[in-house]
Write the structure tokens for this entry.
Amino acid sequence: MTGIKDRSQNKKIWNKKFSMNQPDQQQNRSKAKSSSWTIWIVVFLVLYFVLQSQQDQKKLPNQQREVVQKDKSISTSGEPTGAKAIPASNETIHQTQIKKNKGALHPGFKQQADSGTSQKKTQPITTSPTKAKLTPANSNRPPPTDSSKSTAKSQPELGQLRELGGKVWESAAGLRYGPGSQEKHRLLHIMRHAEDQPNRPGKHGVFLGDGERKKILALIDEAYLKALKGGRKVAKKQEGNRVVYTVDMGRRIGFVGGKVGNKQGKPAASKIRLVLEGTNVITAFPL
Amino acid sequence: MYYIGTCPFCEQGNLGVRICSKTEHAVILCDECDALWVSPEITEKPVFLEEPNLPCPYCLGNLMDAPARWASLGEIFMRGWISTIKGETD
Ligand SMILES: [Zn+2]
């Protein structure tokens, strides 16, 4: 009997204990939960910041390496891509190489390149050579793709003119158009060959190009560059300071008009005749 | 412009009779390449005057500035060159 009593008493005590201990345990559990959350948050934040700082450190050298690699490729190849992304010191080398390349083509190009350099020199300098290893983030320079586009644009296209003063214009290939002829200017004289003159006695060469001056001048530039190269497709005749080049362009570049041309059904013209005095254009026409 | 033929130098231009700015002298001038002959005898080599004014080979005038002009039929006749004329351009 006493055993049973003891057991029931123990049970009661146990129950009592249990019932009294329950709120404490709940509190402890919630405390433990909240503290574990805090730890997780702290751990997460610490990890986040550590990883973030590591990523930043990784990014910086990569970007700098990219810039340096671009510099190397530019300075060795001489390609005008990404010219604005290169540091000032390499930019000078790059410009010198452009000058060399253009100079080999024609002095006119050299002057163009010179003017390009001077233009760049006059541009506001936003970075000093010591800041050459700028990261794209803090650089004022445009992205390399854009800069390569702008560099390509800065190159003179064939047929493009620039004014030299005194009513003289120089083409991309270095031909000069100035005052002269019955039309008072060589450009106007050349443009007589932009369209047919069916009543003109003899032949009258007419350039393709829909009468657009730039297209016609581009053809003349192309013919001149071919003439300078020489070869089988170039015939040269000299009389005093006059030089006449007849250049076979290897394709239709116009037609023969005038009275004779019209009689013959406007035959295709694949040659350009250039009459020059030095680099001064006297006339040019298809034949 | 009255012309005497096609320029043998550029093989495109028409050769006209040009009166200088002093209106005294006449020469043969190509309207395409400015090649010049002092007479209609164009079998000789052409002369190339200084561009762009083309000074008259006989006087202080030139072939570009008014009253320099393409000769009229009368002016050509006066110089005895009328027989060399092949026709007139527009
Ligand atoms: Zn001629």
Q: What stands out?
A: Helices of chain B lie at 73-78. The first strand of chain B starts at residue 2 and ends at 6. DSSP finds one helix and seven strands in chain B.
